[in-house]
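Good morning N.,

You mentioned wanting to compare the apo and holo forms, so I went ahead and generated the holo version with magnesium ion. This is what I fed in:
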Amino acid sequence: MTATSHETTKTRRSAGIPFLLKTAFINAVIALVLFSLMIGIRTEAGSDGQLTYWTRFGDLASLVAAVFGGSIVIELLRQWIGATGAEKLVPASVQNGVSFIGRYLAPALLIFTLLVPVIFYNQRYILDLAILVLTYVMLGWGLNVVVGLAGLLDLGYVAFYAVGAYSYGLLATNFGWSFWVCLPLAGILAAFWGVLLGFPVLRLRGDYLAIVTLAFGEIIRLVIINWQDLTGGPNGVSGIPRPSFFGIPIDNSDDGLAAKLGIEYSPTHRIVFLFYLILALALLTNWVTIRLRRLPIGRAWEALREDEVACRALGINTTTTKLTAFATGAMFGGFAGAFFATRQGFISPESFTFQESALVLAIVVLGGMGSQLGVALAALAMIGGFELFRSLETYRMLVFGMAMVLIMIWRPRGLIGHRAPTVYLTKAQAISSDLVKEGHG
Amino acid sequence: MSEETILSVDRLTMRFGGIVAVQDLSFAAERKKITALIGPNGAGKTTVFNCITGFYKPTGGAIRLSHDDGRQIALERLNDFRIAKLAKVARTFQNIRLFPGMTALENLMVAQHNALMRASGFTLLGLIGVPTYGEAEKRAIALATDWLRRIKLLDRADDAAGNLAYGDQRRLEIARAMCTEPALLCLDEPAAGLNARESAALSELLLSIRSDGTSILLIEHDMSVVMEISDHIVVMDHGVKIAQGTPQEVRDDAKVIAAYLGTDEEEAAAVMEGGT
Ligand SMILES: Nc1ncnc2c1ncn2[C@@H]1O[C@H](COP(=O)(O)OP(=O)(O)OP(=O)(O)O)[C@@H](O)[C@H]1O
Ligand SMILES: [Mg+2]
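and this is what came out, ligand included:
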């Protein structure tokens, strides 16, 4: 067994130059075919409407050459890093070091996060960015219940985010209900929609489930756009009240929080408050998820991801188990949505496009499906990284995409590549995610 | 149906389009006994199991389960997870179906899902951490530990099930089924892929499960296991029952020998003798 795998690695390695050139050549030919019309020939309507065209063979040649060179570089990188086998090649001492860091990373990150408003008090930009990152951490943790634990691929998570945001936005602007009353309502309504969607959909598996959830996300957005009387359509809902400190407004009025505390008002107070609010919500999500994982329902979610047929043979009602996962994830999405609405003060359908669902899903996958710490790190890397590359302007997406590809080559199972058991007799041993299934619907 | 019968299958038929996998099959399994279902490849044994455990809905026929307390359940009307939950029928699979990314202990905890769900007040009480749930979980861990000890995997309790050796996985799957505290345990080729020593250990385990009062329905190709531990054997071929009786009777049955290994009676007899 080991002998054969060694041999295959050797043959892979020694495939060397002819293999490299062959791959690169094939890729270059594909690029030539693709780009010859897109770039090689440029057409335009001339002044009298006739077709004018000119050729750009120089550009085409340089692009094809770039693809050829790039293929070689990527293939070399892949062989050098060792692709999927990498984790087993890492010596034990290094792995111990990694798990040592892992143990202290989460508390260290938490302490740092708690101190962010103190350290960066005067840097509004960083505070705003931190709030954004935390929002995505919360969304990631919410979706992680559905995708990471229960193994149900949900491409329409943004729908629940939207339901939460509009629940708070509409209840607050129409009835003047406070944020703290609306927050649980937003969660409940989102969970309700989660169950409603779940009933017809959960008998589907894998790709089918993904497509239907994707459609559901779009349907919610279209309903919001077209139901003008209620939602204001594309104009959105504006004038959504800012959150209060349990009834005490955070502004420069006489009965505002600053006046009550006897300090001078600054707009940063509200930002700091929002920061701690989303931090608290995210930590609540995390706490609940960690607890649920250790309860029978959480174990059933993970068992469902591992093998649905076996679950049924053990007397587990797979439908309700899936529904609870869907509803729980949706509820956290709803909370995050309510926060989003109160933070922005204005919501419109544009904020709830498929791109958001894709981004949150990417965070969960990048983090290592099921890992809470991984999701937090991934949210930081994705949202923070995206900001980091802002100076690159048009090339931002390109660089960002390349970074993602490199990370996925380096860690195909996500940043945190192992699963922690929920119960143990003598010692909790991390389980390599090579064994853990990804679920199938 | 007599007092002694736990499962009675009456004229069971299962068709897949044009294929008749099981036809008019009737047999009974006795309480606290081991009943074996044998037959050549493709005879329809797994299909019978799938009908009993609710994975297939039979085309025709009746399957009755009668519990110790006299309760009778029509299994062909229950579906899916309810057979395991309400009728207390547990099963293993011909191709092992453990939860490979979960530890051995976790596998056994998942098996106690329904009991633990009740104890955790359907999650709500468990979430706020009521002590009664903590106690229920301790009992569940104790039961799991007990089974890990019985299948000699106690030292592997915290290892991923997918990392266990093949024979260990087979035993773990049986333990997992037993953790649902079933009245009837259905095993689909538990000895497949085991070596002689492991098969002997398996026979011992099954006998101990029987003496604890669980009835067993067993599909098995390994004749040494079947002949040694079965109280009653039902032989199928091409979807119909061709013989039944004690191991001795079945071994001597000419029809069985013929069916089991084609018409080469000498070779067949040699295999059947292997059981002694
Ligand atoms: N889901 C299905 N759809 C169509 N045909 C099926 C299905 N399941 C089983 N069959 C057919 O039913 C017949 C009996 O299969 P079954 O798996 O029950 O045999 P078996 O006795 O368990 O054999 P083995 O000893 O090889 O496990 C086979 O011809 C098989 O092809
Ligand atoms: Mg079979």
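The radius of gyration of chain B is 19 Å.

Happy to go through it together on a call whenever suits you.

Best,
F.
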